[in-house]
Each structure stands twice: as structure tokens, then as C-alpha cells.
Fold this protein.
Amino acid sequence: MILPFQSDTEIAEAIPQIGRHLRAGKLLAYPTETVYGLGSAPTVPALAALSNLKGRPEGKPFLLLISGRRMAEEWGLVFTASASALAEAFWPGPLTLVLRGGEGRLPDELRGREGGIAVRHTSHAGIARLVTATGRPLTSTSANRPGGPPAPGADRLVELFGPEERNGELLVLDGGVLGNVPPSTLVDCTDLAPKMVREGAIPRAELRRAAGRLAP
């Protein structure tokens, strides 16, 4: 199924149905401030279904979209001084931080090799409203097949994941066609000294202008 997800009215009408879909362990394709994403509720069965849909290599985790620092801390994630400074400067926005914590509250399948979980406070208004309404983080990975470019819109999503959309496993949110935007910048904040993992939509120089010595 495809749901329109652009106007305030469309978003408000879609959120209850999306919530039911996610609680059932099913998958979602949705727009973000960067590219279209694929996601699910943060549960082990839903993550397994998402990995299968995406063709994700075993051991490569997904990130979480959150409604802000408070949600991250409610789920047990820990902010270092660097993470706090970077979140204050760039959240909501295309900055993903890898944080320690979450043991017993979030699946270990979300952890990278460094032991942290990647999170982003999304600046996409509709998805931010969805995450706030459901009260749970939304898992996220780019909406593509391995090695291919992310889908720019709903039509391409249906081309890529048509069987799953038609059988009701995948709900597609039509947020319009997205431009060629870089992915989020990714910073590992699991240690006291932050490390740049991926320089994306926010350049390293901008991080340093905002956070100084607390930037990677």
C-alpha cells in the first residue's frame, strides 16, 4: 500500500495506520531529510525482516531515528560531552551519532563493532511527528538494493520492492521526489574522543566551527 505523506492533513491521517503497521512487526518505506529510508520497529523480529528485505550483510546494523535527546536517553543511550555538543548544534538534522548504552532496552542487533548504536534526530517534519506519536525509535537504512542508489520516490520504491508492497509487508509513504542529497554525517561518540565515520551532509569543517575541540 502507498499512503500520501506530504501535507499536514495527510501526515495526521496516516500516522495511526502507520503505528498499527509497525506494531505488527511490518516494514515501512519513508522519506527523510536526506534520502528515502526503509525501517521498522526496533524489535528483533522486525529487524530480521528488514535485513531480509534489504539484503543486508550479517552484522551490519541499522541506525535509529529518534524524536530528540530525551527519547535517546529514555532508551538508555549515553551522551558524551562531544555527543552533547554535536547534538545541541545539529539536531534535528542530518547528523547521526553512535552512542553507547541501551543494554536491555534495544536489540543488540543494532550495535556496531564499536559497541554503540547509531541515532539521528530527524528534521523531516512528518517522520519526526510519527516517531513522537509512536513513542519508539524507528529503524532506518537507505531504500535501495545492495550497491544501488536510493529510490528517489514512491514509484521507484514500488519497482524495487513491489512484491512486499503488494502483499502488505511493506507500507510506502509517498513524500514526493527527493533531490540528490548526501547521506547524514556519521560520528562515533562511543569514546571520549569522537571519530568521523562518514562525512556526509554536514562537512567536518562545519562540525568544528560549531563544536570546536569536541568535534571529530
